Amino acid sequence: MSLKTSLAGALSADLLPRTLSGVVMIAAALGALWAGGLVFTIFWVLCAGAIIYEWQTLIGGPARWSRIGLGIACMGSAVIGLRLGLPELLFGASLLGIAGAAALAGPGLRIWAGAGVLYALCLVLSVVLLRVSSALDGLEAILWIFAVVWGTDIMAYFGGRLIGGPKLWPRVSPSKTWSGFITGVTCGALLGVATVAGALGSAQTHFLIIFIVGVAGGVVAQAGDLLESSIKRHFGVKDSSHLIPGHGGFMDRLDGFIVTATFAALLGLAKAAGPGFVATGLLRW
């Protein structure tokens, strides 16, 4: 197969809606990131609320709107607890949202319903902890996650289309290839290094470690994509919703970002001197 033929295949009809929706989401996410504070928090609370809606709708079952309402209310309360430094509210609201959704879902769907609220909580608590609750490096930490996830996702797409080869996990995601996976993870990690280098400079961190952490983040992002694909396959749906015109739902767009942000927040928290320095713990080595 020639490079010209491969490139023509890569520039197929599905690329245009993916690109347009991606541009809008990227612009909104970067605008909220730059604004920080309450704007950033509200943006991600809305995204997490959309994910709760999509997840509970996807799995079906009884009391769907009650599960959605309870999940969103408890998720918002947990964020308030995090922002105000109230761990009792943070953990209490989180547990109530997870357990309440599970109880309302009924037999056979309890774990799925509770997991949906936990999934949304992982997203919003991770990004708020990194960006808003960190005294230093919050903006840079989220930029690093964007670089790793977007770099991995975009280059995995083109790497798989241009190079081809054996499939990564055809039963779950028929289009993903090992060549795309390796290309995406490598490019995502390199873009993460370039982002940190531009933001912090060589005297502030060790770039080899940032590259290794970026590789781990890229692997996690691809795992998140496969996880969401397996959930949709389990419930027999193609897209998580139609909230984003031309490209499914928020779960479809944020699957890799959610798990990478969670990974980043946990890593930063494990290394940080305290909750207010999670972003610094992530980026400075």
Number of domains: 2
How many beta-strand elements?
2
SSE topology string = HHHHHHHEEHHHH
Main beta sheet: 2 strands, antiparallel
Name the overall outline: globular
Please give the count of helices.
11
Strands ordered across the widest β-sheet: 1-2
What distance separates the N and C termini? 44 Å
Strand content: under 5%
**Residue windows where pLDDT falls under 50 for at least 5 positions:** 1-11
Cα radius of gyration in angstroms: 19 Å
Structural account:
The protein is mostly helical. The protein has two domains: 1-35 and 136-285, no CATH class; 36-133, no CATH class. 77% of the residues lie in helices and 3% in strands. It is built from eleven helices and two strands, in the order H-H-H-H-H-H-H-E-E-H-H-H-H. It has helices spanning 3-10, 15-35, 37-59, 64-84, 87-105, 110-131, 138-163, 178-200, 207-235, 250-271, 278-283; strands spanning 167-169, 173-177. A two-stranded antiparallel sheet has the order 1-2. Helix 7 (138-163) packs across helix 10 (250-271), helix 8 packs across helix 9 and helix 9 (207-235) packs across helix 10. The chain is globular, with a radius of gyration of 19 Å. Residues 1-11 have low confidence and may be disordered.
Key descriptive features of the protein:
285 residues, two-stranded antiparallel ribbon, 77% helix, disordered N terminus
In short:
The protein has helices at residues 3-10, 15-35, 37-59, 64-84, 87-105, 110-131, 138-163, 178-200, 207-235, 250-271, 278-283, and strands spanning 167-169, 173-177.
